[in-house]
Design brief:
Layout lengths: L46 E2 L5 E2 L35 H17 L4 E7 L5 E10 L4 E2 L6 E2 L4 H14 L9 H4 L11 H5 L12 H9 L7 H5 L12 E2 L3 H15 L3 H10 L8 E2 L15 E3 L6 E4 L10 H7 L5 E3 L1 H12 L6 H7 L19 E5 L2 E10 L2 E8 L4 E7 L6 H12 L17
Helix pairs in contact: 1-12, 2-11
């Protein structure tokens, strides 16, 4: 495949966008030599204001779906007691969800998948199917670790807003206050980084960087090394919208300077530990720890045989060391579908940020005049699926694709993680949403907000 040409297709875009990007609002870049997808997250390129391979096994020979039958306490709900919605996940509903997940997995030739549906009071259905490692036939389990790509940004954005609430830094602080030597940051604010209005170019569109990542997959990268490949600003800060991983790499550096702490350490202390996210961590300084198994990432070749290339191999970094460390605070998070469902419930349900912090995160009006591919707040996408509004983020990088969607009208969360990069996970989310059926509306839990520190 020719390097630099996105795979897949999307609806025709306006003439303001220079090229078409693949599905929803994600960036997709192909690495030369290794044919490695390195983009993660969501976005059209730019929108300005006016002015050897392993074959996937046959579905019948693969591990079947396993579904949870017990209620799981909701994060942030004192006591964690499940209540009225326990009757909504009936045996029939669970059966429909399992059947739909198996159907979708077979239809899209997915090596492995994890999925969770969590209701507003904490009752959940979880399932997993297929292989974490096709070559060894090892099955995906509930604790198998997947790289989540740009879902990472939801954690980094929440950390930033907590620190803003504590007065450590401000949304309108110029980046130059914290990183005076970073020339492209002149005039850029913290808010510009969070909502991708900085104008700073995407380093993972640079073929020289892609070639370096592919040439030495065992190399450890720093944010400074990656940012040298970012293109010059394509518009003045606040005058356009361009999804760029550079924004969150810079943001990670700002947070560390402002606090004197590693982002990975702060995420563990503030979020992972208190919320019981025991299978979630940022691959910033260390690879995936044992004994949790890891899902190998597979780059599918869209041909008649549906062969799939394992891009992970023996690496404990996902998908491999050079890409995991290069993405860092922009896309280096490893997790499970269950942990992410708990995170979405806590974050968008009002148990992580103060009321004002959550309102700031979910303000999509600031970027709407700039015409992003999807409405974008501070580290959050607003995506409509089957007529229902959702908040969350998607993640795409070499060998992995995932989506975390919270539906505010019902309080439901659907998370899907797959270890292949050729399928839009929102297709799976939509299928599970339909199988779930109609849920009663629920009021946002703003009166019960509790700030996690």
């Amino acid at each position: 495949m020719h390097p630099g040409i996105p795979r897949g297709s999307s609806p025709p875009r306006s003439s303001r966008t220079r090229r078409t990007h693949r599905d929803t609002a994600r960036v997709l870049v192909v690495v030369a030599l290794a044919a490695t997808v390195v983009a993660c997250g969501a976005g059209s390129e730019a929108s300005r204001s006016p002015g050897p391979s392993s074959r996937s096994a046959a579905p019948g020979s693969e591990p079947s779906v396993l579904g949870s039958e017990r209620p799981v306490p909701s994060l942030g709900a004192p006591g964690g007691a499940a209540s009225s919605s326990a009757d909504l996940l009936t045996t029939g509903v669970r059966g429909r969800l399992a059947a739909e997940l198996l159907r979708l997995r077979a239809a899209h030739h997915l090596p492995g998948v994890q999925a969770v549906v969590r209701l507003g009071d904490g009752e959940s259905w979880s399932a997993h199917a297929g292989f974490a490692d096709v070559a060894t036939r090892s099955a995906v389990s509930p604790t198998t670790l997947f790289d989540t790509g740009s879902i990472t940004k939801t954690f980094v954005a929440a950390l930033t807003l907590q620190l803003v609430g504590e007065g450590v830094l401000g949304l309108d602080d110029p980046v130059a206050r914290w990183l005076p030597a970073f020339a492209p940051g002149r005039g850029v604010t913290i808010r510009d980084l969070l909502d991708h209005t900085s104008g700073i170019g995407e380093p993972f569109n640079n073929r020289a960087l892609l070639a370096s990542l592919a040439a030495d997959r065992g190399r450890t990268w720093t944010p400074a090394a990656v940012l040298r490949y970012a293109s010059p600003p394509v518009f003045a800060p606040g005058h356009g919208w361009l999804y760029s991983n550079a924004n969150y790499l810079i943001l990670g550096e700002v947070l560390q300077v402002a606090t004197g702490q590693q982002v990975a350490t702060m995420l563990q202390r503030r979020f992972f530990g208190p919320l019981g996210l025991t299978h979630t961590f940022l691959q910033e300084q260390a690879p995936a720890p044992g004994p949790d198994p890891v899902a190998h990432g597979y780059e599918a070749v869209n041909d008649a045989t549906w062969t799939a290339t394992d891009v992970t191999g023996r690496s404990r970094y996902l998908p491999f060391t050079s890409l995991a460390t290069a993405l860092g605070t922009a896309g280096g998070l490893v997790s499970t579908a269950d942990d992410l469902s708990r995170w979405a419930d806590a974050l968008y349900g009002g148990h992580v940020l103060s009321p004002s912090g959550l309102v700031q995160m979910l303000d999509f009006g600031l970027t709407s005049p700039l015409r992003p591919r999807w409405p974008y707040g501070l580290g959050v996408q607003r995506v409509t699926l089957d007529g229902q509004t959702s908040w969350g983020h998607s993640g795409l990088l070499s060998g992995y694709h995932g989506a975390m969607r919270y539906f505010p009208s019902t309080g439901a969360v659907i998370v899907v993680l797959v270890n292949a990069d050729a399928t839009d996970p929102d297709t799976l989310v939509s299928g599970l949403l339909e199988a779930l059926g109609t849920l009663p509306p629920t009021a946002l839990r703003g009166s019960d907000l509790a700030v996690s520190r």
